[in-house]
Amino acid sequence: MQLLRTLTVNKFNQAIINGVQDDVVATEVAVALVYNGISHAVMMVTPKDLEYFAIGFTLSENIIESVNDIYGIDIEENDNGITINIELSTRRFMALKQKRRNLVGRTGCGICGREQLNEVYQSLTGLPLTIQIVLDDFQQSLSLLKSVQLVGAETGCTHAAVWLDDKGHFIAGFEDIGRHVALDKLLGFRAKQQQQQGVIIVSSRASYEMVQKAAKCGVEIMFAVSAATSLAVEAAQQCGLTLIGFFKGDKGVIYSGEHRIKA
Fold first, then answer.
1. Are residues 110 and 145 in the same domain?
2. Is 112 among the residues known to form the active site?
3. Which of 197, 187, 199 is nearest to 224 (CA)?
4. Domain boundary among 67, 90, 120
5. Has this prediction a pTM greater than 0.85?
């Protein structure tokens, strides 16, 4: 499936129409996540790295406890989108059926479809201390966000999430029209590699559900290019996640978890 599409549009400069030209837009596709034959969620995504997205979403939504709870993933394109068929272990599928909800995701929305308030505010397990970093090692890391935004470079409309080691070296990165989906793709890759230590940097704000997704997958340190919300800070403090907002490489705001920052 194409990631970029060309449209003929009217471009303008200083309110003056310059005439008809071609422009490039990112492809947005509806992706249905189906567990053991039962549809659970529909998300709007950039149609690449979908296996990692399926794994990351399934982990970060607490549907499974480990990537080993997934027995198989099959991706199929159809006329109106893409279906990802995920085969879960019997134990995890039974648990999913007990709390099943009808969730419809939209770009930039991470908690659409929750039916009860207590489904939104979930308790987070305290994170261990397995990594400490020196902030100077991450001064050049913002360029790594741009390096994975190949669709974004053409269209200007994608978010990115990258995973670095404790010295600021690049491990992996993913982009998507949705910031939550970009993060899920990265969390899925991270889980499949079975490597836990490292730092995640996201191109967006740090909202509550972004912190929740990261913490549920064992992430200990998250940098956000934009701001953090009040609930994100509270959640990070609750589980002991190191959360840094307004990250610009050489400056930022440490909201929680200073014990992982070395002088």
1. no
2. no
3. 199
4. 120
5. yes
Q: What is the CATH number of the domain that holds 51?
A: 3.10.20.10
Distance CA 244, CA 256 (A): 7
| Structural domain range at position 182 | 133-262
Nearest to 145 by CA among 158, 128, 129: 158
User: Has 249 been labeled as part of a binding site?
Assistant: yes
Could you say which of 109, 157, 217, 239 is catalytic? 109
> Residue 15: inside a domain, yes or no?
no
Annotated binding-site residue? 252 = no
**Residue 85: closest CA among 75, 77, 93:** 75
Which of 180, 177, 262 lies closest to 224, judged by CA? Answer: 180
pLDDT one-digit tens code per residue, 125-173? 899 999 999 999 999 999 999 999 999 999 999 999 999 999 999 999 9
Q: Which helix (H) or strand (E) holds 254?
A: strand 253-256
216 is in an annotated binding site: no
